[in-house]
Design a protein that fits this description.
Length: 247
């Protein structure tokens, strides 16, 4: 037996986020590895049969892909990726406003085909959750102002007023002026509709199976509660009514 070396670390490929398809025949999961050239973690989505056949990589390219989510009808797999999307024009400011370089939600047919970008939110999108009819997705996205930049894309220095304990994250930067809220989008595309707002974070949405309802669970803010959002109309945009259940 020998000691573990640095080179051995490149061989470690942990798996996570297993998601079983609605028909129970396949499992989507995430494989994470280390890029030998950049020393950065890379994630990709793989598929394997529940019968135990050889697993195959489902997402291609060097970009990260994670958070797989099967549509209830089994036709689509939603996932989050920071890959390059469709051309957003030559205006650099407009590209950043449309979320260039940020993780976005993508859709790919489960029987094969090209993935397409579904969201273009400024600060990125995450945690896609399917509606029971497989026609819409709820996701969470960061809401707040973007830092002003110089002509060469570097952030301009500015005075920041901090009034909350959790105000900065490693690898992310300042977050004191931003909040996570829930959005609703049709899988055909279009502008997402913001469902929640306020000086707190809304995450972890769950659809009610019987009626069009979303139940986000805020994890940080002035109070801890479960918030119920009633979608009173199936049409877009839906009418919303809210009830906050404090615990």
């Amino acid at each position: 037996m020998r000691d573990i070396t640095i080179e051995d670390l490149f061989q470690f490929k942990p798996v996570s986020k297993p998601r079983i398809s609605p028909d129970g025949l396949r499992v989507a999961f995430v494989v994470t590895s280390v890029d030998k050239r950049t020393y950065e973690y890379r994630s990709s989505i793989w598929l394997v049969s529940t019968e135990g056949d050889e697993a195959k990589r489902f997402t291609a390219g060097p970009a990260n892909a994670h958070s797989p989510s099967w549509s209830p009808d089994g036709r689509w797999l939603a996932f989050v990726s920071d890959r390059e999307g469709e051309s957003l024009g030559k205006d650099e400011k407009e590209q950043k406003k449309r979320g260039k370089g940020k993780p976005q939600i993508w859709l790919i047919p489960t029987d094969g085909g090209e993935a397409r970008q579904l969201t273009f939110t400024q600060h990125g999108a995450s945690n896609p959750v399917w509606s029971p009819d497989s026609k819409r997705l709820v996701f969470d996205a960061e809401v707040g102002p973007a830092d002003e930049e110089t002509e060469d894309g570097k952030p301009l220095p500015k005075v920041r007023v901090i009034d909350r304990l959790w105000y900065r994250l490693d690898g992310v930067g300042f977050i004191h002026d931003k909040r996570h809220h829930l959005f609703l989008v049709d899988i055909a595309g279009g502008e997402p509709q913001q469902l929640t707002g306020g000086d707190w974070d809304d995450t972890d949405p769950a659809w009610s199976p019987g009626r069009p309802m979303v139940k986000p669970s805020p994890f940080w803010g002035r109070s801890s509660c479960v918030q119920v959002v009633m979608l009173t109309s199936i049409q877009s945009p839906p009418l919303l009514s809210k009830v906050r259940l404090h615990v």
